[in-house]
Amino acid sequence: MVRLNSVTKDIIGTILVKVEYFNPGNSMKDRIALTMIEDAEAAGILKPGGTIIEGTSGNTGMGLALVAIAKGYKCIFTLSDKQSQEKIDILRAVGAEVIVCPTNVPPEDPRSYYSVAKKLNRETPNSFYPNQYDNLSNTKAHYQTTGPEIWEQTEGKITHLAAGVGTGGSMCGTVKYLKEQNPRIISVGIDTYGSVFKKYKETGEFDEKEVYPYLTEGIGEDILPRNVDFDLIDMFIKVTDKDGAIMTRKLAREEGLFVGWSCGSAVYGAIEYARKHMEEDGLMVIIMPDHGTRYLGKIYNDNWMKDHGYVESSIDYANARDIIRNRSGNGRLVTVEARQTVGEAIQKLHSGSISQLPVTEGDNFVGSLTDSKILLQLIQNPELRDTAVSEVMDPPFQFVAMDNTLDVLSTLINKDNKALLVRDEKDQVHIITQHDLLMAMTR
Ligand SMILES: Cc1ncc(COP(=O)(O)O)c(C=O)c1O
Fold first, then answer.
1. pLDDT score of 314 more than 60
2. How far apart are CA 99 and CA 431, in angstroms?
3. pTM for this structure?
4. Mutation pick for ligand 1 pocket among 18, 27, 59, 172 (CB with most ligand atoms within 8 Å)
C-alpha cells in the first residue's frame, strides 16, 4: 500500500494505492488464477495433465501460466489484437500457446476471443475453461485476500474503494468483504468510454450504442460478466483513454509508481470523485492492477503517445461537444441506407453540400461513403449509379466520446477515416469532419 503525494495535491483526505505488481506475475490476476484452478481441481473439473484455455487481456493468462507450471498443466490463451505485444510475448515466454483474435467484432462472433476460447474448450479433451468473466471464484479470490489485506493495512479506516471494472472480480470481491466490515464504505467503479457498465448501473438498460472500440486494456466491457455485482458498486465514473494514459505516466514520473494503463484511469477517475466528495478524514484506496513493463510500446513510448494525440499540453482544446454546439445548421445527421442506390447517395451528398455519408441499416451504422471515393469508382464504372450502397461502402466511421478534445480528434481523422461519429446525451448521432476541426481551430 503506497500513499499518493503529488498527483493528489489538491485533494482533501488521504489516497492510498494497493500496488498489485508485487505479485509473482506482476498483476492482481495471480490471485484469481490460483483460486480458479484450485476450485476447479476440487470440483473435479480439472484433472492431472489437463489444458487450461482462457480468453484473457494478458494478466490472467500470466497468473494461470505460472500456476500451471507449478501444477503441471498446459495453457492456451486467446487475446484480442488490441493487447500490448509485450503481454503476448510474456505469455509465450512462460510456455503458453497464444491465439490473437480481432477486437472489432461482437463477443458472439465466432472470431471473437471469447468464442474462440469456448470452441477450443469444447474441442480439446481434458481441458478447463476458467472463464474469469462468469466464474465466481474470481470474486471469491479477492473476497478472501485483497479485501482482508486492505482492511488490515488501513486498520479499518478505509472510507472509499476505487477500482477499474473489467470482469468485476477485483472490485466486487474486495468491496464485498470491506462492506461487510463497514457498510458505509463507498465504492467507485472506473469505466471506459465505449463500455456498457455506467449506463447499465444508472438506467438498468444494456445499451449496445454505448459500445465502441477503445484502447485502455483491462477495464470496461461490452458484456455483463457475472462477477460484476452492480449492487456492490455505488457508482461508475468513465475515463477517456487519453486521460488514463497521461495520468499513468504521471504516476511513474511523479510518484515513482511504474504501473499499467488502467492504473492511471483508476487514479484519474478516483481523483475526480475525491475532489468533489472526499472529506478531511476520508481514506480512499485505489487498486493498481499491474506493472508498466506491459505498456512500454504504448503509453510509455513518446512516439506512440504523439501518434495518438495524447499530448500532455496545457492548451485548453475544444472537445467534440463544443464543436457540435458551435456548428451552424439544423444539426440533423444526413445518412443513407445500405439498400439505397449509389445514385440516391450522390443526390444526398449534392443536396446537403456534404462530402461524406454514414451508411445505416435501421439504427446501426454499418458503413460510410465519401464523395472522392465514389467519383473515382464512377469513373471506372459508370453503371455503379444503380448499385446498392452496401456493395461499395467503406467501413463505418469511428465513434468517439463527447469529451475527446480537438488534438485527439485530429489524429483520428486521416485518409482512411474521413469523419468521426459522436452520440450525445439525447442519443442523437453527430458527424465531425476535417472541415469541422479546421473551423474549431480557427475559432
Ligand atoms: C490491467 C487490468 N486492469 C484492470 C482489470 C479489471 O479488473 P477486474 O477484471 O477484476 O474487474 C484487468 C482485468 O483484466 C486488467 O487486466
1. no
2. 36
3. 0.76
4. 59
